[in-house]
Design a protein that fits this description.
This is histidine kinase. One of its GO terms (molecular function) is ATP binding. Pfam families: HAMP, HATPase_c. Its EC number is 2.7.13.3. Its main location: membrane. Helices cover 56% and strands 16% of the residues. The longest helix has 53 residues. By secondary structure, it is of the alpha+beta class. β8 and β9 form a beta hairpin. The protein has a five-stranded mixed sheet with strand order 6-8-9-11-10, covered by helices on one side. Strands 1-4-3-2 form a four-stranded antiparallel sheet. It folds into three domains: 114 residues, Sensor histidine kinase RisS, periplasmic domain (Beta-Lactamase, 2-Layer Sandwich), CATH 3.30.450.300; 77 residues, no CATH class; 144 residues, Histidine kinase-like ATPase, C-terminal domain (Heat Shock Protein 90, 2-Layer Sandwich).
Length: 458
Amino acid sequence: MVTFDSLRREERSPASGWKGFGRWLRRRLPTGLYVRSLLIIIIPMVLLQSVVAAVFMERHWQMVTQRLSMAVTRDIAAIIQIIETYPQDADFSEATRIAREQLNLQISIEPDGELPPPREKPFFSILDGILSDEISDQIKRPYWIDTVGDSSLVEIRIKLGAKILRVLTKRNQTYASNTHIFIVWMVGASLVLIGVSILFLRGQIRPILTLAQAAESFGKGHKHDDFYPRGADEVRRAGLAFILMRERIERQIEQRTAMLTGVSHDLRTVLTRFKLQLALAGNSPELQGLNDDVNDMQSMLEAYMAFARSEIEEDVGELKLSELLGKIETDFALHEKTLSYSIEGEDEILVRPNAFTRLVANLASNARRYANTLNIEVKHSAKWLTLNFDDDGPGIPEKNREDVFKPFFRLDEARNLDASGTGLGLAIARDIARSHGGNVTLGDSPLGGLRATIRIPA
């Protein structure tokens, strides 16, 4: 039996913790393939160089510094032995000469002196620690050293009884000072390799981006005939598969359009015969019902032909929203209805003009037929074009808002059904919107009626 305590233990389990960390990490990692590919190259390179640099700094650098400091300390110890073992002149000129010429050390002896107060040891100074240890181990006398700063010299003072031996030596004699050259070469080589990787990655990512743009354009109904597969073999296969899929879809659309057009044409011929026979039969009251049925069939057939024509390919062009909505506003005024609109963003849009005009006109005429007031709000952003149609009509029940988009679907009390209604207006509207890569949805209007929303990629 599952208890509350068992659930708490499961939540605190390491597996759930790792899953939570994985989700947190995925949310913060970049989503683009280009950036992820760069990270796959850069992160292992940085980790490898960090490990190499740490090993080099810890072993090679420290070992070389220790040996250099040991050698300098040994030379200083030899100078002290010479001074204390053999008689010297008053200014210690012979010991100074030997140190300068043979050991490359600059020394001086202060007859009466004291060591300066100890300096604060730097936290990251390898030289200070190693040199201090060597002097303590080999010379074993009070000392003072100065390794701080950017000077090329290191100063060492050692107390010899009442005298102070002052030694100046070059920093590179006690310290592996050329280590930064290794780091500079390592970082420089890494930057060059990263630059080359970026150039190659851009060449590999560009065909993928081109394929994505071609697929997006096809989804919006735009033509993209200049696309051809290129890049790596896998990308080429994906591009070829996209071209074949696009051709199959276009061929299927052409076949369906041709079939619908053919069927509608044949039905129109039959209806024309019916109307001719009814006209020859005269104006008999018994035939009035049959005349009405033939007229209804004629209206449905015209709507059917319009639905088929919506599948026909149309080139993409520019369309001004203000001109389109201005014409619809004039039509509302002629029918003594009220229409207001507002446009936020660019006025010109890139769509299939005739199809988009029909899309907007269908929704507007539907509102004009059943409402007195219509407000159209347009928002044109960098990514999306959104049009909201808000009216004060009777609306459509929420449970039937998806059904009304089905071709020839009719409701007993639906707002899209009158003497001339065929049930194809909203179906055609959604079909046009989806051919642009968007959709048409229905909702509640703040005016109390129906809200129809067109949302397509900009």
